[in-house]
Amino acid sequence: MFDLHQSLKGFSGWEDTPAPEDEAAPSPFIDEPWRKIKGWGESTRKELKSEIQDLKPERFDVPTFNVILTGQIAAGKSSFYNSINSIFSNRVLPTKATSGEMGQSFTKQFKMYPFTHNANIRIGDTMGLDVNSSEVDIRNIFKILDGHVPNLHEFQSDEEFLPDNPDYILHPSLAERAHCVALVINANKLPIMQHCQVRKLKNLAVGIINRGIPIIVVLTHLDEFHPEVSEDIRKTYRSGLLKDLVVKLRPMLHGLPENLIFPVINYHKEVELDVGMDVLLLYALRSMIYAAECYLENLTAS
Ligand SMILES: Nc1nc2c(ncn2[C@@H]2O[C@H](COP(=O)(O)OP(=O)(O)O)[C@@H](O)[C@H]2O)c(=O)[nH]1
Ligand SMILES: [Mg+2]
User: Where does the record place the region Disordered (predicted)?
Assistant: First the structure.
C-alpha cells in the first residue's frame, strides 16, 4: 500500500532531499500552529473579502492587477478561480473556468478572466505542465507572463509562439504583463512527483524569478493530502505533515519563503460554502494581490 509518510521522507523526485531510513514518521499534528492567522470564523472571512474588494492599483500606471495561474495540469487552477468566485457570490457556483476531465482539451488555451467582484483584478488561467510538457510549453508560459500572448489564444501543441505570428504582441505594456504568478501544485501528488516533472517546475520557477515576478504557491488537494484536516480545517496549520511538505517544497522553488505558500481545498464536491475553506482560499488570493502590488511598487520606484 502507498505510504504517504514514508514517501514524504524520500520525496521520489527530489534529488536534494535525502532522508535517513530510521527517521520517525512525522507526527500528523503539532501543538503550536506553524502559521498564525486572524481566525477561522465569519469575521475573518468578512474582513478578508472586504480587504480584497477594496484593493486598487491606483498608484500605478495599470488598470488591473494581473495574476496568472500556472503550475501542474489538473492541480486545480480552474477550480481555484471558481472557488474564489463562489466565495464572493455567497454560494457555490457551477464551474465557470473549464475544470475537471473536460478541461484537459482546453488546457492549451490562455484565458484572462475579469474578477467581477473587484474589476481591478484579472486572473489568467493557463495551461500547466505535466510529464508530457516540453521546453516549448515552458517558453510559451513565459510568453504569457511577458504579455506577448493575447487573451483566448490557443497554443498549437509543441509550437513555440513567436513574433512572426500575427497575434503576437510585440511590445507589451506593463498593463499586459503578469504582476504575480500563482503556482498551483497538488499537495497530494507532490511527494510522488517524477524527476522530470520536478525539473520542469524548477525551470518554470527560475524563469519567473529571473523576471522578478513574485510567486505565490497554492497547494491544492489538502483534503486528500491530509484527510484529518478536512474533518476540521482549523487544524491546517497544526498539520505536521503539511509543515514537512512545505519545508521540502521550498528548496525546489529556490528557497521561496514559507509565507508565500498557501494550502487550500478548492470547492469540488461541496454544495455549501465552508467558512474555513474560504479563509484559506482568501488568504491565498490576498497574498497574490499584495505581491502584485509590491512588484508594481518596486517597478515604479526604480
Ligand atoms: N479533492 C480535491 N479535488 C480538487 C481540488 N482542486 C481541484 N480538484 C479537482 O481536481 C480536478 C482538476 O481540477 P482543475 O481545476 O480542472 O485543474 P486545472 O487543470 O489545474 O485547471 C477536478 O476534478 C477538480 O474537481 C481540491 O482542492 N481537492
Ligand atoms: Mg483548467
Answer: 1-28
